[in-house]
Design goal:
264 residues; mainly alpha; 4 domains; two-stranded antiparallel ribbon; 17 helices; 2 strands
Length: 264
């Protein structure tokens, strides 16, 4: 092989550079068969650096020559289509891979465009099911509206929503609200009543102004476990009056008023 190359170079001195290029192309298969990733690094420094930094399975499962077959290239077909390897799932059937996966050497460094939803659903089916089955304003918002800038970004609720209280943290929000079903509100029994007061301010004001024992209770003590649960007085108080009185006045509120503003 070395002797052949020396002969080519000597002949090229007489016949010119054009002959050399044409001749090298004819021996291209011989070079390609011997190429290794170590050869690629000699000229292509950025791609190997990207792969080494964040190549994921492109680093561990394949080599340069597994994707880039043949060199030097006769045309631009040395860049393979993603479908050569990625197939058999709904996500891999999408077109325009490079729209989000901008650099194939760092495949999971993903940039998201505005108003992007449908491609997300090919992987994140559980989240979409929650959004569709629990209608809210979040159902109408594109995935990339919240998960903007890059894949995997999770915003804090306060980026769009005002907190119920100044002390409220993002973890406090997530204690009661699931992002993809925000109106299916659940909460622990020690939820501060001030958090409820952000929406139920009238009931809260009546309660804290009351002179009676309900004032000492948290909202979550009565409205247990699930938002909009309305308890029966008997859940806590049993039957506090004789049966005849309870039959004559079955509605406690007829005498005692509102639970948040009791008459003694």
């Amino acid at each position: 092989m070395i002797g052949r190359m020396k002969g080519i170079m000597t002949l090229a001195c007489f016949l010119g550079a054009g002959f050399l290029v044409a001749t090298l192309l004819t021996v291209q298969p011989s070079f390609a068969a011997a190429l290794s990733p170590d050869d690629c690094i000699k000229c292509h420094d950025q791609a190997p650096m990207d792969i080494d930094t964040d190549g994921r399975r492109h680093k561990t499962d394949i080599t340069c020559v597994d994707c880039h077959e043949g060199h030097p290239p006769r045309d631009l077909d040395i860049i393979p289509p993603c479908s050569n390897c990625h197939a058999d799932t709904p996500h891999f059937e999408l077109e325009g891979c490079m729209t989000c996966h901008n650099n194939p050497h760092t495949p999971l460094t993903i940039s998201l465009t505005d108003n992007l939803t449908d491609p997300c659903l090919t992987c994140h089916t559980e989240q979409m099911a929650q959004l569709q089955q629990n209608q809210s304003a979040h159902t109408q918002v594109a995935c990339s509206k919240c998960h903007r800038e890059k894949h995997g970004f999770i915003p804090e609720c306060s980026h769009c929503h005002s907190p119920h209280t100044e002390e409220m943290t993002n973890q406090d929000c997530l204690t009661c609200h699931m992002p993809h079903m925000p109106l299916a509100v659940t909460y622990p029994e020690d939820t501060p009543s001030k958090s409820c007061a952000a929406c139920h301010d009238e009931a809260y004001e009546l309660l804290i102004a009351s002179q009676y024992k309900h004032k000492e209770l948290l909202c979550a003590t009565c409205h247990k476990e699930k938002h909009m649960t309305i308890p029966k007085c008997s859940d806590c108080h049993g039957s506090p009056h004789p049966a005849a009185m309870m039959t004559k006045f079955p509605n406690c509120g007829d005498c005692h008023g509102l639970a948040h503003d009791l008459n003694k």
